Amino acid sequence: LDYKNKSVILTASTGMGKTEFALNWVAGDKAFYTLPVRVSVNSMYERISNIFGKDNTGILHANTTDFYLNQSKNLEDNGIEVLINQVQSVRQLSMPITVSTADQIFLATLKYPGFEKIYATLTYSKVIVDEPQGYSPDTLAVIIKGLEEISNLGGKFCLMTATMHPFIKEHLKDKAEILEPVFNPEKKHKIKLVEKTVDEMVDFAIKEYQKGKKVLILTNTVRKAQEVYKILKSQNQTIRVNLLHSLYIQKTKREKEMQIQNTTEPVIWISTQIVEASLDIDYDLLITELSTADSLIQRMGRVYRKIGRTITPDSQPNIIICTKEPSGKGKVYDKEIMDYTLRELKNYDEKILTEEIKQEIVSNVFDLERIKNTNFYKKFDKNMKLLEYGFIADSKSEAQDIFRDIMNLSVIPKVIFDENQEKINALLEKIRQKDKIEKIKAIGELNDFTVSAQFYRVKNIIPLDKEIFLSDIPYDKELGFNLLDKDYREIGEIL
Length: 495
Known about the structure:
This protein has 495 residues and is of the alpha/beta class.
């Protein structure tokens, strides 16, 4: 059927061609493809620009300039001029297809002064919202209200995910056609619930690694990931164990993202939600803390990902869910929704989860009657009502505060600054010069030394440049921004 002139809602399993469907649905029209996190946006940009060409594809998020700078490191000066023009085109929303974080488009829902430019563009555009479950309830309300308004203005949207919340469909059912779900018939995941903390599964992880497996351990918070990494390193010095989370300097994070995707030998990687929907990895075994149903199903998608990798009823479980004292409960994830998730999963302990069963679990956990009294839904509902009553942000910065869960500061840890002081000072000097090309090259190099950290994590900051700060955050080459440090114990509980 031809859906090109309609807004659509699609539930489809990982690997069943959601992205291809969305790009066909765009059908040559102007489009915005939004995702929850920058890593996902960067990855999707590479994929889409390979199809449509870099001249037709833009990337838009808080670090757009940095992204293009990294692309330009080996270019001659005239190539950098072209990139400068491209950044300007992206910021003016004039590229045929733009891959972006949601805040770049949906801030306009908050009607800050100047929002009309975005809405005017959206009246003749198509907007793809991929993985809506990746947003906080506050942000999700802004996005859903934005989709309603885009529809009223004549724009079209495609909302798609592997794990659709029923209440999202309920809010948008009059604005879009809800398509039949597309499920992968392959059986890929068999779960086992263990009444242990993720720390207590370290010996099991080592044994599975020694059998030749690629093991992925996922935690709900950066601090817990760092704790597990330290335990593993102290238990056995000979194993290949690595750590990845969002709080490394950019250069290290890029290197680690490449490593986790390109590893072919037995290894143990410990990580966080950063891998849920952003990195194309295929591991043999997942050991994860209990989170919410939608998050867990995204995590499962990192195991037996490739077509043809399947599991049988007599196989050992390849998804181990640790139900004891999961980190971030009530802070990163809603406590009641985690409890509902565990209740549902108990029906499938040591059983295969088909894709249909996974969606059934999500539908049951996020059933409106069940969740309407949870903090998660109360936040969502409160923000929807505020927007329906005509909330208007006084400024763009006030609007950005609503999206603060995806807004970060670029910080150079003092220990990194001290090690590279001469180089960093030279780069800062170039940034203050008038030569535009030298300035842009210097900003790109300087960003390699920065950690992208949410503002509430950072203390004692000193501005080095307009958008780059120096901070005495405890930083460790192995651990990254060290949330095990005694001064950071409290905020370390947050993702």
